[in-house]
Amino acid sequence: MNAAEFQYSDIIHRCFRCGYCKFPVNWMDVNNCPAYARYRMETYSCGGRLWLTRAWLTDAIKWSDHLAHILYSCTSCKNCEMKCPLGINVDIINMIRAAKGLMVEQGRIPKEARDFLENIQVHGNPYGIPRSKRGDWMGETPIEQYNGQEYLYHVGCVGAYDTRAQEAARTLARVLKRAGVSFGVLGGDELCDGNEAKNMGEEALFEDMAQENIARFNELGVKKIITLSPHSYNAFKNDYPSNEGRFEVLHYTQLLQRLIARGRLNMAIQVPVKVTYHDPCFLGRWNTEYDAPREILNSVPGVTFIEMERSRENSLCCGGGGGNFCMDLLGGSPDSPARRRVREALATDARILAVSCPKCLTIMEDAVKVEGLDDRLIVKDIAELVDQAYIKKTEAEGKQVKDE
Amino acid sequence: MDICQALIDIIGEDHVSNKQEELYIYSWDLGTTEPHRPDWVASPRTPEEIQKILILANSNNIPVVPLGGGLSLAGLAVPFRGGIILDLKRMDTVIEVNEQARYALLECGVSQGQLTSYLERHHPGLTHSEPGAPPTATIAGNAAIHGQGDLAQPYGFNSDMVNGLEVVLPTGEICRFGSCSIGAQWFTQHPLPDVGLFLGWTGTTGIITKISLRLFPRKKIRGTAIFVVDNEEQVPEIFHKITHTQMSEDIVAFSQTIPPYASGLQHFTINLAADSEKELEFKQELIFDDALGEYIRRGDGGYLGFTRGLQHPQISKTADWRKGGGFEYVGSIMPVSRYPQCYRRGREISERHGIPYTVLGRCIGAAHAMMFSWTYAFNRADRETVRHAREAMHETDELALELGGTIWKPGHYGQKLVMDRLDPNTLDLMKRLKQLLDPNGIMNPGNWEAIP
Amino acid sequence: MYSLKFDEQKCLKCPTQACLTRCRYMNLNRESARAEILKIAHSEDSFVLHDCVTCYACEEYCTMGNHPFYLIVQKQEELGIPPLPRPLIRRGINMGMPFRGEPAIREINGRALLMAAFADHMFLIQGRLFEGLPVISDDPRKMFHYFCQLMYLHYARESVINQRLPGIINNIAGHKATDVVCFHDECYGTYNSYCPAMGIDVPFRTVHFFEFLYNRLLELKDLIRPVNLRVAYQRPCSSRLSPDKHHFVYDIFKLIGAVAVPRKYVDENALCCGGAVEGQRREGSRKRAAELRRLNISDMKAGGTEVCVFNCPACYHTMGELLSQEGIRPVYMSDLCRLAIGEQPAGWR
What we know:
The complex is a heterotrimer.
Chain A: H1 34-39, H2 46-57, H3 65-72, H4 79-83, H5 92-106, H6 111-123, E1 151-154, H7 156-161, H8 163-178, E2 183-184, H9 195-199, H10 203-220, E3 224-227, H11 230-239, E4 248-251, H12 252-261, E5 274-277, H13 291-299, E6 304-306, H14 324-327, H15 337-347, E7 352-355, H16 358-370, E8 378-381, H17 382-389
Parallel strand pairs in A: 1-2, 1-3, 3-4, 5-6, 5-7, 7-8
Chain B: H1 3-11, E1 16-17, H2 20-25, E2 40-42, H3 47-59, E3 64-67, E4 84-87, E5 94-98, E6 103-107, H4 112-122, E7 126-127, H5 139-144, H6 152-155, E8 162-168, E9 174-178, E10 207-214, E11 216-217, E12 221-229, H7 235-245, E13 251-256, E14 266-274, H8 277-291, H9 293-298, E15 301-308, E16 325-334, H10 339-352, E17 358-364, E18 369-379, H11 383-402, E19 406-408, H12 412-421, H13 424-437
Parallel strand pairs in B: 2-4, 3-4
Antiparallel strand pairs in B: 1-2, 5-6, 6-10, 7-11, 8-9, 8-10, 12-14, 12-15, 13-14, 13-17, 16-18, 16-19, 17-18
Chain C: H1 8-13, H2 18-21, H3 30-41, H4 47-51, H5 57-61, H6 68-79, H7 86-95, E1 111-114, E2 135-136, H8 158-174, E3 179-182, H9 185-198, E4 205-208, H10 209-219, E5 229-234, H11 247-256, E6 258-260, H12 285-302, E7 307-310, H13 313-325, E8 329-332, H14 333-340
Parallel strand pairs in C: 1-2, 1-3, 3-4, 5-6, 5-7, 7-8
Helix pairs in contact in C: 10-11
């Protein structure tokens, strides 16, 4: 049927279904593919997904809701690419995206995915909340509109619309301001970065959004961008250049790390608590940034930092990628990756599970509630921990300075 | 009766499927065996759930196929008559590791990689005999097919390392074998009644739900030394000499067309373990300066150094040699003395089928036997190469028996060849045991099929 | 076809017979050295042919330019006295065979870097030092089309070198590079020492890797910050074929603020890595190689070495792990140079 149209038909048969893709780098558990962790059926592993895609393309099976569910349960966490021992490993996510893309073209995707993508097209966010409300996240916090400052602070859809993530977004703004960073936001004029749309097979929508963003950034003279979300970071850093959008992009943890190193973030208030950290996929495996968040946490006075058994490149995805923070195809079970992950955090004896991604923040805070762990584990964004430890210098010293 | 609903009532909706996607994927072995669809896929969590499923299957005459890692590559977990395929990998708890008695008590779905990692992190002084399969292979599955790992020399088959089993019989009873059956720790199989009814029977006599596996000392320094000869006739005597020193662990001799450096030569990989440089040097001296020194001096054999760190074997790369995602192999258990013939005849079969030859022999015990394998790669997208691989394997099954060995984990073709040669009284006894344990013949039908 | 430019008269006139008197693996005075080299020249058996560990040093020691090492190797082959066991020779010969398709020859018409049989070390070729420099042999699957073959000197197989080398030279020449920077100095030694000694024509100009690195560092002088490291250089056997370029090691160290520690086994007294020795037929070879490494590393440690600098990947793989265990960090010269200009080579933590 579609075999000829499928860009990767010359390699997709090479998957042996050996199952390496289910493991983390340190082999500790066979549940490091979030979809496989949730369903534990071979169909939901990466190898199963590739074999089913090939079966669909060669008419061995027909399209069905279940097939689409299996495809869209992939969160693009990249564990499989890291583990696959074969030469096809660099194209695994590309193959899954391409398969989703074919389904999008045929208009045959899960309802949740259709709603997600339509909402982005119509409202500029997956929640379907009106565009006019995009700037509401700022609340009463005085945050400057972007007008040529050194950095554009890009909040992203989750930070803009989800109430819990909005707290993190505001807190980060406060931290940056106190540290004297020159930045502004687009507020109500901000657009979605498109990372999820791309991973959900909507390449054309992604390119539209990228081009619109790039035009706007260029018009405003944006040179440097700080992102709240690693998903935005990934899109701006890795996918926008091929659309002629070249900016210096930092995830906020990378900027905070620099500020700490230069003595610009005075964290003097003790935060005497055990903290563990969850590596978000788009900062960790996708962009190999494992150190900046840890350096920040180790700099917060009073914090005792404990690693989970699966950390860094071994991290178990929270299950939020590929649009799933909204679609929730991996929820509804104690085996859901987010619930597994918070149980792992609890096992470290930590009181706080620190995150650096608004999607991880919301999905894991929900998981803590469902697991009944509210009184034992708190999920916090790193910016919130920094804020807690921060002591303001004198007003005079607090004036904005350009970052060296 | 709505079997699907009955299964859901036993194990929950998330763990049962009769949708085309699951039926498709679970119909395939990863080798050349033709696919056969199950009617239902079920993934239980406890022996009690399995018990209920087997009672259900028996009363409705539904075949049941137990599935571990699915990496036998001989079609041993393909639902030839449909029915229920039981994916056992959710039963993956490491129940206990006893350091003093050196054993691990595991649920049947614990994978090789999981155990290796668990021991490295929590019990670094212990290791298990890890086979060359991808780490998703299960411990119980591997023992059940009489697998061999990197401690085959000197400790034998992985099935020789079993202290005890918990098994659900086809008729639903849960039984235990070994010291655990009298309520003691799971530290020994002997002298209590045998586990022999459930190892090597391809899941046709019951479903293993727990296994107690012997563990072994893990030394600080582990690595591999390499020795090369160009005359295959010398391989058996070299196996003999190295095992006599009692200084090494795993010993494998291999030869293959690709890469070119291996072609026409016999490479020995000899694993060494030591707790100190002194111990390592002592072992190397005894093996390479003393036992094998004469080969080196004569120029017949070459030492290629010792590399620290054991590589987890990446057998999956073999699958990609023809850029085609597939390979299968005939494994045999042979007398070590037959290595030269196994090599020469196997090479001839490969070349005739246009497949680059790949053979290896792994020493079992003190060279009591070897596992000799002939590997045939194929391209999943090219049916001709699949046909050639399958034909080459059938010829090789026959070769193994002709040369005086037996087939390790035979698929249907090999099973028939073995049964044709089996002692008639033995075959009759096997039939009677099978009838006793599985009166309705529901367990993994199609295997050992002369036994109805 | 090709014949070694060896002149017995030069040995007869030689005032020192340094080739053999300076050999650290055999005990010869001038008289016995003279006798043995003449036996070898006459294709007679000599214990030298059996005991040579193929460290290449005598090529450097010879003051008459008479290629004693190439002569020894030739006679070992002629008389059937290979230093290595037969299976290792066959293995080595097979290993050098290209078997995955034809090389992709494209015209460069400028300077190029030749990775030869080290295309799998492309991870070293990054950063400002190599900016804009095209690479010949960057594909590990096809790298043996560019393999200089000189490794077979350890195998007593000059015949294999002479048979394959013209084709290799053709492949390299096909890229029409104006000059070829040789990543590995054995390639450089092949085209500047072995080929002239054999009368093999080399239709391209070659540049020693360290000369290239040194000049490149001069161009980027403003970026250099002293590395302030105490270093030892692991001189590979092949370096003996280009002693005139050895000074670049120290020129680079001086330029980048690396301090070469005082050592006994250094320069003309350097110890090879023992990689070729370990598998030799000569009794006690395995232990001899281990002892070589022990001496070498102790010598580095005694001088307070922090970092051992490598040219050759074979030395690196033979000695790297042992050095790390002794608290000395192994690093390639090019990575050290990258560090000096403020870059972060992979693996340098």
